[in-house]
Amino acid sequence: MRPVPNSLHDEVASRLREQIFAGTLPPGSFLDEAALCERLEISRTPLREALKVLVAEGLLRHEPRRGCFVAEVTESDLDEIFPVIALLEGRAAHEATRKAVAADIAALELLHERLQQCAADGLVTDYYEANYAIHEAFITLADNRWLAQVIGDLRKILRLARHKSLHATGRMQQSLAEHLAVFAALKARDCDAAEEAMRTHLLRQRDALRDVARNQQSRLTP
Q1: Over its length of 222 residues, how does the chain's per-residue pLDDT go in tens digits?
Q2: Are 55 and 79 part of one and the same domain?
Q3: Nearest residue to 5 (alpha-carbon basis) of 49, 52, 62
Q4: CB atoms within 10 A of CB 133
């Protein structure tokens, strides 16, 4: 059998990854290989190679004799991940502040205007996308491939929780204020303040997710 081109299983992995992030394949759901092959019009070989990629990324879990399931992020996982990613993204904000030029700041200004408009309109999904774009912009500006690689791996896991934190009471406006604080520090060229503001933003996001989980639990408890 000829080897399967990397581009094919990479494409399949990308399509499945986006379905996981979009919630089309929700946490805990079983991936039926036969159905996926039929829907994606591919053979088992590239599908299984794609599944291996997503298992390695932590987006899927493989159970012997049962198959693959979309990973579920636990509260314990979040407690362990957020302090780490807060440190890393804080450092990215520090380096981005040091390296940003006028054109970069202008581009960030547009992204923050979009974020403010989404918050004003109460558009959770759009706000989430704008928020994600801003974080990506800071990571890109930091221009540190090692930092970007580790943050990227962790952010894939956190996207399983998606924008649940934005459903916490008042969280969208709090998140907006935190983002504006980071941006203000960048414009002031205060690297340390930008780093601290970004770390605070990430840790408060964890607090918001914890509040959402508590509220959900209280509704389920008789």
Answers
A1: 334 445 888 899 999 999 998 888 988 999 999 999 999 889 999 999 999 999 999 899 999 999 999 998 888 999 999 999 999 999 999 999 999 999 999 999 999 999 999 999 999 889 989 999 999 999 999 999 999 999 999 998 888 876 567 777 889 999 999 999 999 999 999 999 999 999 999 999 999 888 888 876 666 555
A2: no
A3: 49
A4: 13
> What whole-number distance in Å separates Cα of residue 137 and Cα of residue 73?
25
In a shared domain, residues 26 and 63? yes
Residue 162 lies in a domain: yes
**Which is nearest to 150 in space by CA: 103, 91, 204?**
91
Domain boundary among the residues 35, 70, 105 is at: 70
Token code pair at residue 115: 């974020």
Structure tokens at 53: 């990629």
CA angle, 80 then 180 then 174, to 5°: 60
Same domain, 98 and 166: yes
Where does a domain end: 52, 70, 88?
70
